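Appendix B, record 7
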Amino acid sequence: MDKLSKNVYILFALLAAALYSLNAPFSKLLLQRIPPTMMAAFLYLGAGTGMLLVGCIRKAAGRTGREQPLTRGQLPFISGMIILDIAAPIFLMLGLQLTTAANASLLNNFEIVATAVIALAVFKERITGRLWGAVSLITLSSMILSLQYGGSFRFSSGSLLVLAACVCWGLENNCTRMLSGKDPMEVVILKGFGSGLGSLAIALATGEKIPRFDHLGITMLLGFVSYGLSIFFYVYAQRGLGAARTSAYYAAAPFIGVALSFVIFRKMPGTVFFAALALMAAGAYLASTEGRRHTARLTSGGAAGESAYKG
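Structure tokens (predicted):
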């Protein structure tokens, strides 16, 4: 623990979760005015621009610290991170057009499953029985949330698109784990501008129009807060609490997003949603408490119980 108290770091972790939880409900509102790929582009551009300004302010104040810069050796992982961060928010915005904000918020926990399975398959990272239990519960909950109940058995296309975003972010988590020792501000700025400009190019190529200036500004502000500042506080909480304890507090984000969606849209879901919510909460609890039992493994670079540079 460094100069700040433990309670301050806990506050940072909860603040990171609360800020990220704004993404789904407020993006759902903005999608009524902004096309999905353009929306994804300016969310990330907002994160990159905002964090660049924060970096300039910190540099002017002489508070830059001693961070390790990115090098050419990390180029494959940087490229993978940017490409996946182009795909993931586009999938999420497309999914949000077709499903509720509460549903999308809760399905975000599938990122835990994707991260764990990819860490096992690619990096041969050991997954404990407790984490397998979390993976099973979250997967079952995600299946329930994705089903369309009616005359035929089929999955909701909106939910499947959100799950595709989670898979992309799971892959991206396993790329950014290779950058965890580098300057987090530099990583976020690179992520924001690289992914934002990539999404913008796709949006323009597919005929989407630049939004009105006021809508553009609100979208960039949302990106700065829910992606940029959320990651910023997450990284600082991680340095004071460790990766495992930070991820445990951060697990509150999807549930805060669900609560916000109820308040904003004033639409309560049926009993099936609450059954899935209970399963998801149990899975998230197992995943976060598993992280506490394996702090040494996670802080040395494990990805299965954490999402290092979230969003």
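Remarks on this record: Confidence is low (pLDDT under 50) at residues 294-309. The chain has 14 helices and two strands.
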